[in-house]
Amino acid sequence: MNTLLLDRSTWDLLLDASGNIAVASDVYAIAQDISSAVRVFLGECWYDTTQGMPYRQNILGRSQSVAAFEKQVEQVALTVTGVADAQCLVSGLTSSRQMSGTILFTTTSGSTGNVNL
């Protein structure tokens, strides 16, 4: 499975050495797709409004346990093509409300990878 390669800091498209739009493949492509899926607000994708995290509905401005958030992230990660299993592990929340953690995943082909929150 392939996907467009995105710059890690700007989340914008990248060019390859030939000047073409760069493509990510294999486990990295799935990791990037999981990261994209978790960044999307539910209803934000015009082509499929069922995709994304329920940030407005269940997360932002709401009291919620870390376990409930982790479960929601895992459910969204499992919607990505090629993902067989996903586990979200929140490791911290700063005073400026920045969350840190990782999403561990296994692909349908048995490869493993991770995505930082």
Q: Can you offer a commentary on this structure?
A:
The chain is of the alpha+beta class and 117 residues long. It has one domain (2-116): Nuclear Transport Factor 2, Chain: A (Roll), CATH 3.10.450. 26% of the residues lie in helices and 26% in strands. The chain has three helices and five strands; from the N terminus they run E-E-H-H-H-E-E-E. It has helices spanning 26-39, 55-59, 66-77, and strands at 2-4, 23-25, 83-93, 99-107, 112-116. Strands 3-4-5 form a three-stranded antiparallel beta sheet. The two termini are 22 Å apart. The mean pLDDT is 92. Pfam families: Sheath_initiator (PF10934). InterPro entries: Sheath_initiator.
Can you tell me the residue ranges where pLDDT is under 50 for at least 5 consecutive residues? none
CATH domain fold name = Nuclear Transport Factor 2, Chain: A
Helix content: 25-40%
Helix-strand sequence: EEHHHEEE
Extended strand count: 5
CATH architecture descriptor: Roll
Assign the structural class, choosing from mainly alpha, mainly beta, alpha/beta, alpha+beta, or little secondary structure. alpha+beta
Radius of gyration: 15 Å
The overall pLDDT average reads: 92
- Helices, by number, come to 3
Distance between the termini: 22 Å
- Our estimate of the beta-strand percent is 25-35%
Query: Largest beta sheet, briefly?
Result: 3 strands, antiparallel
Order of the strands making up the biggest sheet: 3-4-5
Top-tier CATH class: Alpha Beta
Pfam families: Sheath_initiator
InterPro entries: Sheath_initiator
